[in-house]
Design brief:
The structure holds 2 protein chains of 2 kinds. By secondary structure, chain A is α+β, with helices and mostly antiparallel strands. Chain A has 2 helices and 5 strands. The chains are: A alpha+beta, B alpha/beta. The interface between A and B is large, with 35 and 71 residues.
Chain lengths: 102, 392
């Protein structure tokens, strides 16, 4: 199945915007992804192995959080997984007092 | 919102209006009634920059009666690659004034309300409450959450748009029964994870695409026509020109818009996003890292001191301008510590002092005892020490 890598994470996935993985479930696919690119692990998962709250994973067009089986949902070759991180489109979070907001 | 569904006396259209908006009037989805709704509408544009530029211009063109603009920034040359409401002659001028001038030139009947202030928990509810729709064109996470929460608390829909490099997102949050921004992103990313446009770059046209989508959604909300992006996240990949749509749901456990909200007033958003409060003056120590000014660095270099300047920018930035530092891009620092001598005095440097501060903290945590951050980065060096060093 295909996993779409969002722009902010592409440096940690060797610049790829999409990757093919073999997996049976959503979590299997993510594990395969982070096995190939270990640096992605800390961006996607907390220390306890849970998906970080500012990262959303979509199976096709559905948020995995709202699927009955969540990450254990089975996937097929034609499914796609999209990782959607939050983007704010602008100034860095470490904003200095003298630097303008917008 | 009361103004859009309750029967209100809509303003009449003048002869000039009929001539100006004729292309709207002949559209079944707009017509005279729709145009009168637009004339009655009050839209708040937060940010008169990349997203705000096309957004405000198209709303003015469409005949929105009142446009509020929130922005305290000043036009800079680097804005002109994408902030098309401003012109070269406006460099140095307040964005609010520049925007107002162009908007009134386009549509003199437009009522513009300027808010020369930073939106904060103290003023957001007061500012937003008089508007029917908010179009969020800001560029940082604390404000995104602030605007979202304020919109939910006030019951005002939020035409959301955001961009990064060549990707954009758009949706409508805080509409009735629809999700809010927190339903999608309950938590912000840790500071520093998502680079700013200044650090990551942005394709100039991108805010144009997304900003006009926001304007479109705003107009649809006012007219009550078409299907707005409520419950949908539009993803735009401009590089591959792919548009995708993901389903968004209202989270019944959302702390702001859920069935049992726990956030009932505005909070400290900087704290929420993990940002230490900015000091009014440049402090000598930030998070335990000594701040070195560019003047001090120059003095030390002239005195022949043995400093290791660690430049943590990207190679293409180094090519544009550098002060001879050792280049290790920030993402590579953790695995190239062997190349950074623990026994030397290290000054970490980047473009403006943000990335270098973070890397200085990383080094300190890794046991480096003699690390300072070059406050203001290479931009400050160019401003104060050597103008021949190119700014970008």
């Amino acid at each position: 199945m295909k996993i779409f890598i969002p722009t902010p994470l592409r440096t940690h996935a060797a610049g790829n915007d999409a990757l093919d993985v073999n997996a049976a479930t959503v979590s299997g696919a993510l594990d395969e992804l982070t096995r190939t690119f270990p640096e992605l692990r800390k961006h996607l998962f907390t220390g306890e192995g849970k998906l970080r709250a500012f990262v959303n994973v979509y199976l096709n067009d559905e948020d995995v959080r709202y699927l009955p089986a969540k990450e254990a949902t089975a996937v097929s070759d034609t499914d796609t997984l999209s990782i959607i991180p939050s983007i704010a489109g602008g100034a860095g979070a470490a904003r200095r007092a003298d630097r303008p907001l917008y | 919102m009361a103004t859009m569904t309750a029967p209100v006396k809509l303003p009449e259209l003048t002869q000039d209006d009929l001539a100006r908006y004729s292309r709207h009037l002949i559209l079944p989805e707009v017509g005279e009634e729709g145009q009168r709704k637009l004339k009655a509408a009050r839209v708040l544009c937060i940010g008169a920059g990349g997203l705000g530029s096309p957004l405000a211009l198209y709303l003015a063109a469409a005949g929105v009666g009142t446009l509020g603009l929130v922005d305290f920034d000043v036009v800079d040359a680097s804005n002109l690659q994408r902030q098309i409401i401003h012109s070269t002659a406006d460099i140095g001028r307040k964005k609010l004034d520049s925007a107002e001038e162009k908007l009134k030139a386009l549509n003199p009947d437009l009522k513009i309300v300027k808010y020369d202030t930073m939106l904060s928990s103290a003023n957001a509810l007061d500012i937003l409450k008089d508007y029917d729709v908010v179009a969020d064109g800001t560029d940082n996470f604390p404000t995104r959450y602030l605007v979202n929460d304020a919109c939910v608390l006030l019951g005002i829909p939020n035409a959301y748009g955001s961009i990064f490099r060549f990707e954009g997102q758009a949706s409508v949050f805080a509409a009735q029964n629809g999700p809010c921004y927190r339903c999608l992103y309950p938590e912000p990313p840790p500071p520093g994870l998502v680079p700013s446009c200044a650090e990551g770059g942005v394709l100039g046209i991108l805010p144009g695409l997304i900003g006009v989508i926001q304007a479109t959604e705003t107009i649809k909300l006012i007219l009550g026509k078409g299907e707005p992006l409520v419950g949908r996240l539009l993803l735009v990949d401009a590089l591959n020109m792919r548009f995708r749509e993901l389903k968004l749901r209202r989270n019944p456990e959302c702390p702001v818009c859920g069935d049992h909200p726990t956030v009932t007033k505005l909070i400290d958003y900087e704290q929420f996003c993990g940002i230490a409060p900015a000091a009014k003056e440049e402090t000598a120590l930030k998070n335990g890292i000594p701040q070195m000014s560019v003047k001090e660095l120059k003095q030390r270099m002239d005195a022949g001191d043995d400093l290791l300047i660690l430049d943590v920018r990207e190679p293409f930035e180094y090519q544009i301008a550098n002060i001879g530092g050792k280049l290790i891009p920030q993402a590579e620092v953790p695995r190239r510590l062997a190349e950074i001598d623990r026994n030397r005095e290290i000054v970490v440097q980047c473009k403006s002092g943000g990335r270098s501060q973070r890397i200085a903290e990383v080094l300190k945590k890794s046991g480096y005892e003699n690390v300072a951050n070059l406050a203001g980065g290479i931009l400050a060096w160019s401003d104060q020490i050597d103008p021949s060093v190119r700014k970008y």
